[in-house]
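Tokens in:
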């Protein structure tokens, strides 16, 4: 038996990577780290509390070896033109205890002609030894429609910001999207209708549906209604979104790349922006005027690794999981319940940081009528949303800092 066969005989089945396995709890799932040739988007910021950094040391050596191996495998059949490292776009990796490291790599398909796929995906595992190719295949996501579902009530300023981004990213750039707005109540509903109608006429875009519900706002109910009211292809790709989220075209591509019907769902870890008033007080220039100027740094926001509300999955997979808990209302937990269903199924959950989707800061209200668990979760989210640890520390000790500055100015201390 060759060395490679001996290694593979000792590791677990590749099906654990390619097909996924049921897990007992959402805490058992190991998220991916997203990377490009020059950047790592870190879920675990480590001692440096970095949310993004250059790959260095052992990590750079490992990723370089894997990318070299992937290029070698892509060129193995002798076809031309030859793939090079410059054709690598981005990838994901995670280390599974007792198995090894799992990599999913996306390359530009330089051999694409006509209807051939835009991407080539390479899946590799390093089973605590030499790299071993699990899979390589073209990946075609062109023309794959995404139904973006957004529940809302009021929030007109957020609505206008969302629609501005929707026009720029979805209508002008991506084009293969459908927007389902589920509006609760009557106040400002006419303004919502007018705004969406104007966009449809101005851009000759007829893929917008507005549904009105005359009841108290419930995010899970809004998403469920939006999904059930889909009139097109039964297995459309869904993106469950919030009105305070903005995204770019790269995110929409990842939404398509990281989902497969009956096999894979995508739960991006989004970057949550801190309170701009606090952030800007520590900056020479404002940092969040618009989506094009959103910065990923430890002082402007954090990876929202405790949030499961933003997700891309196929409609049939959502329905197979029986959707949201119908008894769930209020803040947050309905998202966790759905996430747990997927984690405990045979569907692979792709959980990874995504630098193309942002949660915009807004005032958060925690309803005192929520259950203790949900209220604590809401307060935790509110606290983490406000500012970085160092910024909150400076604000907490502002009186001491002011006294020190006054003493310094008066000459009482050097």
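Residues out:
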């Amino acid at each position: 038996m060759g060395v490679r066969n001996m290694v593979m005989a000792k590791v677990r089945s590749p099906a654990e990577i390619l097909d996924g396995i049921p897990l007992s709890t959402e805490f058992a799932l190991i998220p991916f780290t997203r990377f490009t040739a020059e950047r790592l988007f870190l879920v675990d910021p480590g001692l440096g509390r970095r949310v993004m950094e250059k790959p260095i040391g052992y990590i750079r050596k490992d990723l370089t070896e894997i990318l070299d191996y992937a290029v070698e495998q892509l060129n193995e059949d002798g076809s031309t033109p030859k793939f090079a490292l410059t054709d690598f776009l981005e990838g994901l990796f995670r280390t599974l205890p007792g198995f090894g490291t799992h990599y999913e790599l996306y390359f530009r398909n330089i051999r694409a002609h006509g209807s051939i796929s835009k991407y080539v995906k390479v899946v590799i595992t390093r089973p605590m030894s030499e790299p071993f190719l699990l899979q390589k295949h073209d990946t075609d996501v062109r023309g794959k429609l995404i139904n973006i579902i957004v529940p809302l009530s009021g929030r007109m300023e957020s609505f206008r910001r969302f629609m501005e981004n929707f026009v720029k990213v979805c209508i002008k750039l991506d084009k293969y999207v459908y927007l389902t707005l589920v509006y609760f109540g009557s106040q400002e509903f006419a303004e919502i209708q007018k705004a969406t109608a104007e966009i449809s006429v101005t851009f000759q875009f007829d893929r917008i549906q507005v549904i009105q519900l005359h009841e108290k706002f419930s995010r899970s109910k809004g998403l469920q209604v939006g999904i059930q009211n889909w009139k097109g292809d039964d297995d459309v790709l869904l993106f469950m979104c919030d009105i305070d989220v903005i995204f770019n075209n790269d995110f929409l591509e990842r939404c398509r790349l990281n989902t497969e019907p009956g096999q894979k769902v995508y739960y991006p870890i989004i970057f949550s922006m801190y309170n701009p008033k606090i952030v800007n007080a520590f900056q020479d220039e404002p940092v969040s005027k618009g989506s094009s100027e959103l910065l990923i740094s430890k002082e402007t926001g954090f990876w929202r690794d405790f949030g499961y509300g933003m997700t891309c999955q196929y409609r049939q997979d959502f329905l197979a999981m029986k959707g949201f808990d119908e008894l769930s209302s209020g803040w947050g937990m309905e998202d966790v319940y759905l996430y747990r269903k997927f984690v405990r199924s045979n569907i692979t959950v792709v959980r990874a940081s995504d630098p193309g989707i942002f949660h915009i800061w807004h005032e958060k209200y925690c309803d005192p009528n929520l259950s203790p668990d949900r209220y604590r979760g809401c307060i935790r989210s509110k606290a983490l949303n406000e500012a970085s640890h160092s910024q909150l520390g400076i604000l907490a000790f502002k009186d001491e800092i002011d006294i020190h500055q006054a003493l310094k100015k008066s000459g009482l201390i050097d």
